[in-house]
Amino acid sequence: MAGFRSYFRDAGRDFDVTGFREVVADIGGRNRVLTVYAEGARELVAAARSYFASQSVTVAEESTGDERVVLSDPDGTELVTVGLDALRDLTRGFERGVGDGASYTELLSHLDQTTFVSYDRRQMLQATREVEDRAWRLGDGSLYAGFQRLSKLRDQRRVYERLAGTDLDVHVYGQRDAAVSLPSSLTVHERESAAFLDTWFVLFDADEAGESAMLLAVEESDGFEGFWTFDDDLVADGLAALRAET
């Protein structure tokens, strides 16, 4: 954690891709234990192990009639309890619009700073939506989203029109790789550097303390590697790096 902060506060470093890989490695990541309490839930447990295989999460199983899913610290401290359906929705790739809510939101919110590797687009969208949804619920502050290429905004246009319809100040970044009609309510930043073409980021700078959020990931040959956080200080560091690059 300290290394992450020092990275961003080192005036000699900017938001380049090589440095960002070091950030992801340096943050270390938190370990979590996910225990599925159920009888005959072999398929769900297998799906959970597959889903979390690229994250610092150990999946355990306990046979019991009191069905639930518990996320804990390695020392046994329980962080959150959700129903089996929340885990099913997450592992099945349920996608939702901003503000629609999801059964697995509480689960994802307690997986912050557990670094992930090899995340695919579906998993990235699920994590991204948690940051966007927090911004939408508060309805003010600033949201910064890197799309790599602006053509990717086509699939997310409705989401970002809804976000920009609040008092949020919404900024999007990416290469203008095709003719794309973008809502006038967005501030568009055309970028060509690898810092933007090879990264996926969503940063929410909340006006209210304790509400900021950020997802940062770099694209590798087998998927995305990164983390998300709800730590105000870490989000502020990320914003400083973004502003230095732009």
Provide key terms for this protein.
9 helices, Endonuclease, Chain A, 2 domains, alpha/beta, Glutaredoxin
Write the layout of secondary structure elements.
Elements: H1 2-9, H2 17-27, E1 32-37, H3 42-51, E2 57-62, E3 68-72, E4 78-82, H4 84-92, H5 105-109, E5 116-119, H6 121-138, E6 142-149, H7 153-164, E7 169-175, E8 187-190, H8 194-197, E9 199-205, E10 213-220, E11 223-229, H9 232-245
Parallel strand pairs: 1-2, 6-7, 7-8
Antiparallel strand pairs: 1-3, 3-4, 5-11, 6-9, 9-10, 10-11
Helix pairs in contact: 1-2, 1-9, 3-4
Write up this protein.
37% of the residues lie in helices and 27% in strands. It is an alpha/beta fold and 246 residues long. It has 2 domains: 14-21 and 113-246, Endonuclease Chain A (Endonuclease, Chain A); 31-111, Glutaredoxin. The strands form 2 sheets. Strands 5-11-10-9-6-7-8 form a 7-stranded mixed beta sheet, sandwiched between helices. Strands 2-1-3-4 form a 4-stranded mixed beta sheet. β6, α7 and β7 (169-175) form a beta-alpha-beta unit. α3 (42-51) crosses α4. The longest helix is centred in the middle third of the chain and has 18 residues, at 121-138. The two termini are 25 Å apart. This is DICT domain-containing protein. InterPro entries: DICT_dom, Uncharacterised_Vng0742h. Residues 104-219 form the DICT domain.
